[in-house]
Amino acid sequence: MHTSLARHLVRGGSLGAAVVFLSAANGCSSTNDGSAPASCTGLGDTQAQATLKAYGTATAKLAQKAAEVEAKWLGICNDMNKDLGLDSSKSSAQEACAVLDARIKSALAKGVTLKLDVAFNCTADVSAQASCEGACKVDANCDVSAKCEPGKLVVACNGSCSGKCDVTAPSATCSGTCQGSCNSDVAVACKGTCEGSCTAPSWTGTCDAGCTANFKGTCQGTCQGTCDGTETAGACKGTCQGSCQGTASGSCGATCTGQFSGGTCQAECKGSCSATGGVSCQGKCNGTCELEPGSASCQGSCHGSCSAATSPPTCTGKLDCSGSAECHGSCQAQASAEVSCPPPQVDLVVEGDADLLAAFRARVKDIGTAINLTFALKDPIFEVAGKTVGAFSAVGDIGLSGAACFGASLSAAAKAQASISISVSASASVSGKSG
Length: 435
What we know:
By secondary structure, the protein is of the alpha+beta class. Helices cover 37% and strands 29% of the residues.
């Protein structure tokens, strides 16, 4: 089952197309290079001040990452606007994506079908979280191994792993399950999105050689059958049913004899395959490769015991130690800012608008990655933006310098929240779900 954009919106809260802007505190400033605000650098090493400094670093890193994602949306929306003959000169993501949103809404009002489903496949940096927790001093009396949510304890590893091992690297050689896209030179059964060749007698996606039977979709060539219900044997700007000579995007009851992309193949796929829940891979994995328990060589995150651990055990879920809650939460937020989102499985259907389809197809992988980054960051950002100074004062005395650090950190969190809200709005726009 795909994790659709609609489910992302429901899961993360009903923001819809709203854009939230929060005012930064007067006199507060923060850096934009991912380091803690300047007012946090002079804090001491008491648990209270170290925890507060971890919070400051988390807000700065999240603000920087949110700005990067917002910039991605600016580029995507302006590029699609250019392809569609629209104004592509906007200097903000909010304005650029509003232009695209209006074009998509106009198409939908005319009966065009748009479906965009993106499988969520982002992973946070476990090593970054472990390093942060060491610096901000998780309470020495907290037994992380015993107090961690079951199944959420991991350790950075460079040896043999007793449990599942996750190795994340671009195009890493994988002999396991790939959470991302697996590239193989041999044809394999692909239960997700296929990019390459498809040997199936039926498919849903795009074939540059057309479809000879039982076709329904957008035909960039000659449509033999009906176009929006009218008999035709020529070009069709709407929905073609019958057969298509030229690039065909939709569903087909015949073999794709050319290059296949962006859809599901009912038999075997040769090239790249990505699927929700991972795909069995004997090739290059662009994402996270999950090795079976007992791996003799784990150079990644070990869900179990490791013969050569390179970090202390880290809890990626809830840590039931009240004295360490703020430290743990800030370090999880820092790990979220170091999130990795490989090209995800994206199912795209556009029927009845060849120009809109072409604009989407040219950037579908970038759109999928931007959507996943947006929703990987949204919840951590909203959580840090909701903090109060009392949460840190409860850990210990933060002093005047701590109060200044908190004010600057909250300012950075507000900027991150405003920025990620714009990206949430952009995500809704490209899915046709914005209002």
